Amino acid sequence: MFARSAFRLSQPARQSFRKYSTEAPAKGNGLTNIAFVVGAIGVGTGVYRYMQNKPAAAEEIKQREKVFTGGEQGFIDLKLSEIEILSNNTKRYRFEFPDKEAVSGLHVASALITKYVPPEGKPIIRPYTPVSDEDTPGYLDLVVKRYPEGKMSSHLDSMAVGQRLNFKGPIPKYPWEANKHNHIGLVAGGTGITPMYQLLRAIFNNPEDKTKVTLVYGNVTEDDILLKKELQDLENTYPQRFKVFYLLDKPPQEWTGGSGFVTKELLKTVLPEPKEENIKLFVCGPPGMYKAVSGGKKSPQDQGDLTGILKELGYDKEQVFKF
User: Fold this and answer.
1) Same domain, 162 and 188
2) Which intervals hold domain FAD-binding FR-type (predicted)?
3) DSSP 3-state assignment of 24?
4) Is 143 annotated as a binding residue?
5) Does the annotation place 126 within a ligand binding site?
């Protein structure tokens, strides 16, 4: 995946573009009746799956206990119940709730804070966005890439089933509601896909939401692409409203997607234009990607100035949100 310190833009991205075609007829309620199965990824036979039963009725979900309630609630200790290897440096971690019927309490878009206190040293605190549905009872799933310098990701990588980790939240990110924007553009790198996927689930699980979505998703190799099957299923089901443009730094010979890194030319071609009415862009990825595409955040509460490619293309600060 991307090095945390670099996101090269010198190599042009080669991408075949197709127009949004007529939307395929929905089956039932679209994603509402689709078994939630995360597609095969990883090295060799590494397979990533997590299952979601048919979502319960909204009233039933509303009545269920919520594990995370925010506010003055402290950290909650959850047990690691399952680990799945997705690639040589990425795993899925399933943490179970004490109440198997409870739901997380997260909303779109929000995240959780994780905390680990090493035997010696200061507490390590990092935010993560679960990839499991907010209405899934009994557990939450995190997909985390291990970075050599990443203290929390290295700790998670060393954990065994049965060990526990502290969580707190939900931490509000961007308040989403159906049809809030006509068209949104998502620019993601590596595991930065997780908050984007949270938005996608909310949009396409809701038959009343008609938002159009364009995703630009960059990785180093094809094996690094997370949630690829889910993204492909969404494209096939909603071709008039959802399109993904993949970019690989090291594409295989048979690769037909984009080659190279995010460029001004690519984003100008595929994203909604700055002058379009009621559009929004979302960015999430390694620090180097932020620097090149939008500029980084000053803090969780301060989005900072808009710089980089998106500024050069004429977008203003109010049109861009940095996860």
Assistant:
1) no
2) 73-177
3) coil
4) yes
5) yes
Tell me what the mean pLDDT of segment 244-273 comes to.
94
Question: Is 127 known to sit in a ligand binding site?
Answer: yes
Q: Is 194 annotated as a binding residue?
A: yes
- Tens digit of each residue's pLDDT (9 = 90 or more) over 130-172: 999 999 999 999 999 998 889 999 999 999 999 999 999 999 9
* Encoded tokens for 89: 């440096």
Q: Provide the residue range defining the domain that includes 164.
A: 33-172
Cα 90 from Cα 84, distance rounded (Å) = 9
Per-residue pLDDT band for 218 (boundaries 50, 70, 90) equals very high
Per-position DSSP letters for 227-259, written without gaps between them: THHHHHHHHHH-TTTEEEEEEESS--TT--SEE
Please indicate if the annotation marks 153 as binding a ligand.
yes
90 and 217 co-located in one domain = no
Give, in order, the Cα–Cα distances in Å from 181 to each of 53, 167, 239: 29, 31, 18
The CATH number assigned to the domain holding 98 equals 2.40.30.10
Residue 5 lies in a domain: no
